[in-house]
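Dear all,

This email documents one entry for the complex benchmark we are building for the journal club exercise. For each entry we list the sequence lines for every component of the assembly. Then comes the predicted three-dimensional structure of the complex as a token string, followed by one or two observations. Please use this as the template for your own entries, and keep the labels exactly as they appear.
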Amino acid sequence: MQKRISLKDIADKVGVSTALVSYVLNNKKEGRIKKSVADRIKEVAVELNYRTNQIARSLKTNKTFTIGLVVADISNPFSSGLARIIEDEAEKKNYTVIFGSSDENVARSEKLIDTFITRQVDGLIIAPGENSASQILSLQQQHIPFVLVDRYFPDIKTNYVALDNYEASLSAIHHLVDQGYKRIGMISFNTSLFNIQERNRGYISALEKSGLHFNSDLLIEINIGDIKAGVENAIDSLLATSQPIDALLFATNAIATHGLKHIYKLNLKVPGELALVSFDKTDALDLFYAPLTYINQPLPEMGRLATKLLIDAIEGNEEITQLNLPAKLVVRASTVMDKDERFSR
Amino acid sequence: MQKRISLKDIADKVGVSTALVSYVLNNKKEGRIKKSVADRIKEVAVELNYRTNQIARSLKTNKTFTIGLVVADISNPFSSGLARIIEDEAEKKNYTVIFGSSDENVARSEKLIDTFITRQVDGLIIAPGENSASQILSLQQQHIPFVLVDRYFPDIKTNYVALDNYEASLSAIHHLVDQGYKRIGMISFNTSLFNIQERNRGYISALEKSGLHFNSDLLIEINIGDIKAGVENAIDSLLATSQPIDALLFATNAIATHGLKHIYKLNLKVPGELALVSFDKTDALDLFYAPLTYINQPLPEMGRLATKLLIDAIEGNEEITQLNLPAKLVVRASTVMDKDERFSR
DNA sequence: TAATTTTGTTTAATCGATTAAACAAATCAG
DNA sequence: CTGATTTGTTTAATCGATTAAACAAAATTA
């Protein structure tokens, strides 16, 4: 890689000091600099194809215009969708995004955050994994600006932008109840993650409010490490009883995707034999033969707000903002029976 | 944000020079430094929770351990899948990834590359968009290490890792011909992008080799800017003739996703009335009622090899490596008729 | 014991940009 | 015509780390 052009190269060629070049290129001291000199400097800068060394500038200004983004897995549509919004939003304010996937793994998450701090990011947007509360607390102690997205810790006072997961589950289950389903199951994760806990709580609460009793056999919490097998076994067991479920809520898009593949294999009739609702919107849900009723997370708002909160915090706003955005239930074929199907029940 | 701990803070506390601290923490001059002093320095470093200021180090060493990744759109599963592999591969070598989406837009792409250079990335992995050849040439002139993925310019001698798109199309069409389909259409992009051109060329070539004449009405090149409407119109027009198509190849996963939604709406029977093949593997293709036959791009290899080539180049390897990886056709329900369907044709 | 080598550490320059402060020259006010 | 301002530019310190070179003290060799 050939030597890059520095301020000094321009200064030498024009015959001025680097200070002057810096002032001109940054439009500082406007009016104080002779027009002819300023023009010449700009001209030479273009001619030599100069570009600022952002590293040097950052060292001096103590500002990198970089945001670190920690998601669970960038290849998950939820994460990548969010990443895209954040990218666009950050770009508007001249920030660049560094990203990393934690894989819901504490050690990875710690390493990522560490790397980002080492790189002097101005702030972080984090979808925190399980057991990472101490990492978040540590950020707080170091006064590093950050915003949590999707997940958060109710006991820690931090900026966050998340879904109102409790309400979201609640509305999904109420909808199923309204449609006449009586044995409603849920496949979720075995985790302490607050957003998932809230989804589970919403499910339980909705059943009780509806006068259907909550049967813990119908809420299966699978292991986050092996979704495919977990989902398949869960579905099998939910169906292999004398009173199989007639409706099912998937707690995440990953659970839904594997679940749908399995249900397709089992040749179950949706919604006749089994109604389905999922969290998140993905193309996969659209293409199932009975397009799924789903809980739509307002991804664009989440991304936008998270980025905005972060940049505000970076710029010195000390206020803490906690947002639980409302989800919207989008009703489609997977939960709505034809009239004749309905009569036959 | 409170003042961070620097080498100087450690040096002051221990009562030595910053140089010595640097040597110790970087394990330089091993054996030359008194064990007791070294231990004390390490101890204080931990105690103060010191972490290297990577910005300062980068300025001095002229190395950022950062890779810039330019994809078309990080929210596309192809891009995010690739990003994930690259992330993992880069991490193994202690590199961090900055990313950006070009949206197939020359100006955006230029801005991204510029930003990344300004930030002194050690190298770039780029899925170049249309008309960005000049940007690539410029990188070459500046001797900035880079590797192209997915797309490349046949006239420019650069490192790249791509699919053998011609062969991929060829095998897909041959498969359709073998299955007895005779009027095979393709929906592709109206673009000069080489990978797409190759896919189109493979389609045409396969038809001719098979003795089916190529009818340019059956290869519809839609505008990359408005995929949804383009695909819907294309499908409508391919079907609205006296001799409608009996099979269809989608040139990308985005085309396929929109195509499948439309075909579902039209209530077409796949593969009975229309057989389908798509490029790329996505969950959406799995969940269509007739899971799609698809051309599987070896994403992990692409990502791994691209990262490896880039890091080799960063480390000084001047050799140019150009890889066209073979695709694998995965045959599923969307192109294979039941016996009775076959007889009825 | 003097010269040499080894050990252990510091000094100081450097990376490239920013910016307060200093300075010289030109212009102005009285 | 002189002192004060304004204009235009330079000097030099700084950000935090790295590292060649210098240096002092201790150990070894002759």
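Observations: The radius of gyration of chain A is 26 Å. Residues 14 and 41 of chain A are 7 Å apart (CA to CA).
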